Amino acid sequence: MMKSLLLVAVPAICCLMLTPVTADNNNIVFDDTTGLGRTFDGIGGISGGGATSKLLVNYPKLYRDEILDFLFLPNFGASLQILKVEIGGDIQSTDGTEASHMHNSWEENYERGYEWWLMVEAKKRNPDIKLYALPWGFPGWIGQGTSSPYTNNNVTADYVVRWINGAKTYYNLTIDYVGIWNERLYNVDYIKTLRSVLDQRGFQNVLIIASDDGWQIAGDISKDPELAKDVHAIGCHYPGTWSSNEAYLTGNKLWASEDYSTFNDEVGSGCWARILNQNYVNGYMTATISWNLIASYYAGLPYYRDGLMTALQPWSGNYVVQSTIWVSAHTTQFTSIGWKYLNHTSGVGKLPSGGSYVGLVSPDNSDLTIIIETLTHDHSICIRPPLPAYSVTPQNVTITLNGHLAGISQLYVWYSKLNYNGDASSMFNSLSPLKVVNNSVQLSLGLDEVYTLTTLPGGLKGSYPAPPPAGQFPLPYSENFEGYQLHEEPYNLAQQTGSFEVHKSGSNKFLRQMVLNAPLAWCEAEKLKKAVNVIGNITWTDLFVEVDFELPSVNASTGVFVAVRINQGGCELMNTWGIYLFATSDYKYILANDPFQNTVLTSGNLPAGGGWHKLSLFVQGQKAYGAYDGTGIFSVNIPSTPPAGFAGIGTQSFGLADFDNLYLAAQQEGMAKMTKYFSNPMPESQPLYFIKEHN
């Protein structure tokens, strides 16, 4: 295989890259007699990293099932072959936090979070889908007093393997692959310990992918035969279609274990089409996994619409099947994990006038699938890394089938054309089969096209009736948590730090914040040292928010808050602004313009006394009103910035805090509520005002 390669110097991503020789004429030969290339390991999507499927759970069942079919059902939509999920660690991992199965060392719970549900639904539709699990972070106790998960490798390995065992014990889910620590330092001794613990507990078939970052681990693998054996595949993130020479020479499988992460318009679809082919053409990567699976998190959180499809309005039922779904189908509906790529000299390469092609054959050599893409540079730019200049021009090519492939008499054809001029793209259309004459077929290739030529007669562009139109988050909104199972996470509250779950006392269900100490964080959001849970619409300006709260007698937070106009989430949470009303455990209230309370707008004392209390905040223009237990406590002027943002609840510090009877209302009702709470009438009501959304 190496004889067919040129070694060239390339800046930025890797020092050396493997570049296939491009054919010097328009005759593209597919021939299996020269041997076969690497084994195809699948196309997939990531749920997590973090909370990217958050809103999907709350969709009406009819539309939720349709969405899941578009993602997972074989021969219907994307027909994904790998589902990668986050092992929740109570940490902010991009768009929210996902709950750990062990908030503390003394407890274990497998009813938390929604990844279990998603994996079950994926397996229900495709029993052959592979499941891949990866931590983005860990609960604080894992660090044993440090900020590293590698302080005691046995503790960390035990924690991860317990999650894998929980998947099997409680949901009959077999985890196929497990990673180390997303985009953070790997530890060779930990990888070996994890392999040992997996084997000891009967999970010999769970394979390790490392290190879900760059190609750096290849250096250690090349020097350590035990590590090389323990690592099933080297997983790299955003490789730009190139692997390093050192990684290639290890002989290990090479994966783009996280890729794409691009706004899912037609340019994003072009990015996805290009990398699905060229990750193997350029970099010999046999699996490509999209971050993320589905953009199902609030607009206004980071990386809006960076998923294979979009579903962010459970209240309306609206969802969008993007072109990325049909780009995926060009590969996934006509291959299976275990197929083999043809060699680069005889079925994989670059087209003479730009673009690429890959050929794959079934394990018994009875079927052939060819995927061709001609995506132009400006129409296929991914979010990262930068894309070097290249050109594509229309071209006519002859495809010649040699060897065992010479017996093929016709090829079924599926075609997509991505449009960028405002016209709708033409996606995943079945064309008339091509007759193979004298072992050859001719194709006229335009720009920004994807073709699949295959011996397989299947394939389907699945469809459902159009979903309902999009609509605003409904106000008023109330939540008493009575409809949830214990330990379930409320549907529409999007936790940004901390971990919130439903608990019960007597006959009453309520929401409890569970994180006691700072976790081993993935990003800087946890520097807040607070739990934050947002809801609604980042364009909300004037709003009423109210919640009942209680601070438990043991392991409690030092206080709670309600807030409006929270203008950021995700890893930038520590830089957020808003209007925050805190009630503290020493019976004080603080109104602040930021969660750190660096800009205090007013403060005062509250009546002493434990038990449940009601905290209310109403903001209108540059005026804020607060109430405690139904009595007004302040009316003050506030800054004009931020002008809009989410509503939210949370804690003043990590520690237990209980919430109930959350209520949100628009301006008119908020005015009426506060008028009741204050003895003096408030200014006349004005219409609820929204800042225009930027899509």
Automatic annotation (TrEMBL):
Gene Ontology, cellular component aspect: lysosome; membrane
Xref: InterPro entries: Aldolase_TIM, GH, GH59_C, GH59_cat, Glyco_hydro_59, Glyco_hydro_59_dom
Source organism superkingdom: Eukaryota
Domain annotation Glycosyl hydrolase family 59 central: ranges: 346-459
Record-listed E.C. numbers: 3.2.1.46
Signal peptide: 1-23
GO BP: galactosylceramide catabolic process
Entry-linked Pfam families: Glyco_hydro_59, Glyco_hydro_59_C, Glyco_hydro_59M
Gene3D superfamilies reported for this sequence: Aldolase class I, Exo-inulinase, domain 1, Glycosidases
Glycosyl hydrolase family 59 catalytic domain residues: 40-333
UniProt keywords, alphabetically: Disulfide bond, Glycoprotein, Glycosidase, Hydrolase, Lipid degradation, Lipid metabolism, Signal, Sphingolipid metabolism
Active site positions, chain numbering: 183, 258
Annotated Glycosyl hydrolase family 59 C-terminal lectin domain residues: 495-665
Molecular-function GO term, any one: galactosylceramidase activity
Family: Belongs to the glycosyl hydrolase 59 family.
Protein name: galactosylceramidase
Gene transcribed to yield this protein: ORF123952
